[in-house]
TrEMBL record:
This is Purine nucleoside phosphorylase. It is an enzyme of class 2 (transferase). One of its GO terms (molecular function) is purine-nucleoside phosphorylase activity. One of its GO terms (biological process) is nucleoside metabolic process. NCBIfam families: PNPH, PNPH-PUNA-XAPA, PRK08202.1. Gene3D superfamilies: Nucleoside phosphorylase domain. GO terms for cellular component: cytoplasm. Residues 24-270 form the Nucleoside phosphorylase domain. Transmembrane segments: none annotated. It comes from the Bacteria. Pfam families: PNP_UDP_1 (PF01048). Its EC number is 2.4.2.1. It comes from Nonlabens tegetincola.
Length: 272
C-alpha cells in the first residue's frame, strides 16, 4: 500500500542531494536516452539509492533520476521507467511520477517507443499522443487509500494537456519536424502482437501500440499535473506483411529519431 511516509523519505533523500524545486519532469522511453546529454550541471540519483524506489531491470533503461537545467528551466529526468512486463505493479510503475510531483514539478513530458498501427505513419516518425486506450487490465488508482492522494474518480475526458499539445505542434511545424497526432494503445507485453491483435487494435481506433505511458498519464491526471506525451514510431505493424521482430533495429530507429524528439522537448520546456 502506498504511504505518504514513503514519498517523504524519497523526496527528502533527493532534496538533500540537491534536487531543488524542479519545474518540469521528463520520462524517457526505450532507446531514448540522448536527452540527458543536454542537461546542464546534472545531479544523478541511482534508483537503488533512493529510499522506497523500485529498481530498473530492462537493459535499455539505466535506472536513474537526473536533475539539472534545460531550456532555462530546472528539470528532473527519469532515465529508465518501469513496466508491467518486468513484474512491477501499477504502484511501482507510477511511484516516480508521485515523487516528481512532490518535488514540485508543474509539467510532465513523456516519451516512448511504439509500433505504428496506422500505416500512414512510418518508422522513424513521431506521434503526439492525443488520447489513449488502456489495455493493461488494471489501474494505478485502484488501491484502498487512493483518497489520501487525490480524487478516486478521475476525469479522463482530456488526459493530455491541450496547451502543451498545441505548443509542441507549433514547434514541430516551425522546425519542419513530422509530428503525427493519434491514439496510443497500451498493452501488457512483453511479447509483441499477433496479426489478429494488430487488426483488433486498428478496429479499436489505435494509431500506435506500446507497453508503457498510460499508467503514468493516469497518475498525472490524478495529481492535476499537465502532461504531454510523444511516441517515436520504431516499427510498422502491418498484419498483412508482418516481419519477425528485430529488437536491435527498433533501438536503432529510436536512436536515429531521438534528436528530433530532444529538440521538440527542449523547445517546449523553453516555452513553458
Amino acid at each position: 500500500m502506498l504511504s505518504k511516509k514513503q514519498l517523504e523519505n524519497s523526496v527528502k533523500y533527493l532534496e538533500e542531494l540537491g534536487f531543488d524545486k524542479p519545474e518540469v519532469g521528463i520520462v524517457l522511453g526505450t532507446g531514448l536516452g540522448q536527452l540527458v546529454d543536454k542537461i546542464q550541471e546534472p545531479i544523478v540519483a541511482h534508483y537503488n539509492n533512493i529510499p522506497s524506489f523500485p529498481l530498473a531491470t530492462v537493459e535499455f533503461h539505466t535506472g536513474k533520476l537526473i536533475y539539472g537545467t534545460m531550456g532555462g528551466k530546472k528539470v528532473v529526468v527519469m532515465q529508465g521507467r518501469f513496466h508491467l512486463y518486468e513484474g512491477y505493479d501499477f504502484m511501482d510503475i507510477t511511484y516516480p511520477i508521485r515523487v516528481m510531483n512532490e518535488l514540485g514539478i508543474k509539467n510532465l513530458l513523456i516519451s516512448n517507443a511504439a509500433g505504428a498501427v496506422n500505416l500512414n505513419m512510418k518508422k522513424g516518425d513521431m506521434m503526439l499522443i492525443d488520447d489513449h486506450i488502456n489495455l493493461q487490465g488494471g489501474s494505478p488508482l485502484a488501491f484502498k487509500n487512493v483518497g489520501e492522494f487525490g480524487e478516486r474518480f478521475v476525469d479522463m475526458s482530456a488526459p493530455y494537456d491541450k496547451q502543451m499539445c498545441a505548443k509542441i505542434k507549433d514547434i514541430a511545424s516551425s522546425k519542419k519536424i513530422t509530428l503525427h497526432t493519434g491514439v496510443y494503445a497500451s498493452v501488457v507485453g512483453p511479447q509483441l502482437e499477433t496479426r489478429a491483435e494488430y487488426r483488433m487494435l486498428k478496429i479499436l481506433g489505435a494509431d500506435a501500440v506500446g507497453m508503457s505511458t498510460v499508467p503514468e498519464v493516469i497518475v498525472a491526471n490524478h495529481l492535476g499535473l499537465p502532461v504531454v506525451a510523444v511516441s517515436v514510431l520504431t516499427d510498422e505493424c502491418d498484419p498483412d506483411n508482418l516481419q519477425p521482430i528485430n529488437v536491435p533495429e527498433i533501438i536503432e530507429v529510436a536512436g536515429k529519431a531521438e534528436p528530433k524528439m530532444v529538440e521538440l522537448f527542449r523547445s517546449l520546456i523553453e516555452s513553458l
